[in-house]
Amino acid sequence: MSRQINLPSNQIKLTNVSLVRLKKGKKRFEIACYKNKVLEWRSGIETDLDNVLQIPNVFLNVSKGQTAPKEDLEKAFGKGKSTDDIVLEILKKGELQVGDKERAAQLERVHNEVISIVVSKLVDPRTKRVYTPGMIEKALDMLSSQAHQNNNNTEKEKSTDSGAATPTTGEAGEAKPKTKEHTWTGVTTTKSAKSQALDAMKALIAHQPIPVARARMKLRVTCPTNVLKQAVKAPKAAAKEDEDGSGEAKAPGTVKDRILGYVEQVESQDVMGSEWEVVGFVEPGAFKALSDFIGNDTKGQGRVEVLDMAVTHED
Predict the structure, then answer these.
(1) Which of 211, 227, 253 is the last residue of a domain?
(2) φ/ψ of residue 267, rounded to 5
(3) Which of 26, 57, 171, 308 has its CA 20 to 30 A from that of 275?
(4) Residue 241 in this model has a pLDDT that exceeds 50
């Protein structure tokens, strides 16, 4: 005898879903998103909400298809807020629920991006050569192990110390504040790769598990003056750059603007006859993009000359 199972007509079946949850007041609200799209939206890669949300609705329980009543939304988020506003707030502030495999893949992606950024910005100050990703990984692993060991020792000291801690004093007997050391404990998925790469570089420079220094390439760029004012389309990423205050150029409009956008520090620029020349410092990671731009957008009329492969400098 066959049996028919009747599902509720209002049940919503979702597949390949990532949940974003936000607790507001005494209720927990959820939105259903496509996998991997939440992080792309938060990093600015994806801007179309239709590509992020599976259903533009707010739920109390996505798996049960239980949508949040209007009264609950008004009580938690305030009256007058549209569903879109509430969805955006959950998307910005909510906790992304991911499975173990997805979390591991996400961590690996961030880790690889952090290593790639660090490799492009640090050199061996003795040889002025960049390190391989493997060398940078080993150096960061050393710092991570050291940081965890120090944390364990600190916890042990706290547990065995029955007296009150006394501050370190200087020569005048005044309390000496502790200086914050740059430490590295490993990659997380809760911060951007750029900010973590900056932390990693600070820790490597401070502790020197291998000899490292920030570096820039010294270049001379020449280009005919009649090409400089030509308008160019900015790359898509340029308009979203600099979220972490790295000082990179944002959506320049002319050939000259784009060239100077790649130059971290201008040493000199001059016009000689019909040719413009700029000498300046560029981070190694930006060299290829600058060379490609000069080759493509100036139609071979511009030139890039490397004056020094790696000029070390202090931040």
Answers:
(1) 211
(2) -90, -40
(3) 308
(4) no
